[in-house]
Amino acid sequence: MNDSVGNSPMNDPLAWVNGSDAPEKSSLDLGFMALSDCASLVVAATQGFAQPYGLTLNLKRQSSWANLRDKLVSGELDAAHSLYGLIYAVHLGIGGVVPTDMAVLMGLNQNGQSINLSHELQQQGVVTPEALDRHVHQSRTKLTFAQTFPTGTHAMWLYYWLASQGIHPLQDVDSVVVPPPQMVAHLQAGRIDGFCVGEPWSASAVVQNQGFTLATSQAIWPNHPEKVLGCTQAFVDQYPNTARVLVMAILEASRFIEESNENRRSTAQLLSGRDYLDTPLNCIEPRLLGAYDDGLGNQWQDPHALRFFAGGEVNLPYLCDGMWFMTQFRRWGLLRDDPDYLGVARQVQQLALYRQAATALGITAAGQDMRSSQLIDGKVWDGSDPAGYARSFRLHALAAPANRQALR
Prior knowledge:
Subcellular location: Endomembrane system
Helix content: 25-40%
Number of helices: 17
Low-confidence stretches: 2-11, 400-408
Keywords: Cell inner membrane, Cell membrane, Membrane, Signal, Transport
Structural class: alpha/beta
Organism: Pseudomonas lactucae
Strand content: 15-25%
Protein name: ABC transporter substrate-binding protein
InterPro entries: NrtA/CpmA_ABC-bd_dom (IPR044527)
Strand order of the largest sheet: 2-1-3-10-4
Mean pLDDT: 93
Number of strands: 14
């Protein structure tokens, strides 16, 4: 990595490690999954961003999102690179888990996930959304799609995208859970026909000629929320200073990654190591730089590629971002009734803590708690009427709680 990493400008971090602002816990175990969007945690832990705040960050790679969830709830992990929907599912007690008060400290990234289809479907000419729609409705056998966790972002992007193409994700196709690093092997073995996952596994499938990228998540929702820094509310209550300086260290790492393409390249090199993604650099670096090759001969520089900072826009835990995932849980029958969308989001999203950390670093933290976005189907989401939004979709499973999946 660049030697300047550990000397990044900051507003006298020693002020945050002395006296009443000192972190109550100095050594933290942070969980992560082998995905490109864990980058800011890896950079913060290994490149000198945490030590000035009196923190030692011990990175713990997890084998599945379910394992990460269980260790986060039990306290074996202090905080983690997490799926937005995982944090909300635990908070709401979805899928048979005991409800536990959870916290989103900050957003870690936006964009950068993909839906891939198999080489076999490619050979059959199923290379467009229209062709997939025809295949699904004319074939006698159901296609099987993998996502990474029943309430996770990848399940929600997959369901939303399929529904926007007229394909009911819980009736017209089968959906299974596969940990991210195992996606390509399952595709190669013919156990699944497609998947939605984070990088580098979509790019890896293309590089290995095991399929192609049909859609990106940023095409579904430009600058959508993705991974978060999650923990239990008990951690925030017990270690408020620690939580704040942890956000500051990771914010600085996020800012560093985006300062230049050189920094993105050095980050890709770091991530490729055995302890992190353990994957060839050519599967990581291009899409981390926004350069896409879909495996069908199309190449482009994506204007909404994976981003980690964007002046802090990525990192602000907007209330409406958390609320959106709850609307989709309701839409697909994971919630039997409408929750108190705004009330739950205000409990989970640690806006005040994030703004303290951002302000201390001279990062402008937007005054709004909501934002407005238009998704692939033309619908606008702004958080103003979540219950109405959840009911507004033509394809849904509101009356079909039997379709709910167990969170294994």
